[in-house]
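Sequence design from tokenized structure. All designs in this work follow the same two-part layout: the structure record, then the generated sequence. An example of the structure record is given first.
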């Protein structure tokens, strides 16, 4: 685990540099997931500053803070598309270990719903 991930996990305040490194690590993790044969909860770059232990940790406030961070790189990929149930369930869920599948499915569904809310909120603010 890299230092910026350790800081995020511990709940310490992250510097701008640490946040930028975390976004980069998450982007790299999405690339790595494509090559992995079997996936578990910890393989996913959940869109939060602090790594969630389970679906209950995936809160609207934590995901919104991550997505609306001024450091969030533009063009970081379409988070909504990555987590969309049709795409996620067909591309990633079949590779998730059976013992982890329910928890990952619940977490991905929560992320997709929260991202939809964030998108709605940000598009309403622009009109």
């Amino acid at each position: 685990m890299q230092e910026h991930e350790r800081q995020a996990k511990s709940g310490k305040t992250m510097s701008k540099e640490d946040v930028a490194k975390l976004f980069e690590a998450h982007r790299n993790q999405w690339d790595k997931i494509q090559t992995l044969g079997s996936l578990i909860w910890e393989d996913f770059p959940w869109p939060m500053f602090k790594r969630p232990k389970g679906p209950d940790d995936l809160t609207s406030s934590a995901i919104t803070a991550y997505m609306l961070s001024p450091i969030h790189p533009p063009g970081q990929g379409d988070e909504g598309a990555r987590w969309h149930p049709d795409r996620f369930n067909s591309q990633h869920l079949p590779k998730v270990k059976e013992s982890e599948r329910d928890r990952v499915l619940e977490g991905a569904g929560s992320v997709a719903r929260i991202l939809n809310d964030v998108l709605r909120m940000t598009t309403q603010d622009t009109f």
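Residues 84 and 90 are 10 Å apart (CA to CA). We note this feature because it recurs in several other targets discussed in the main text.
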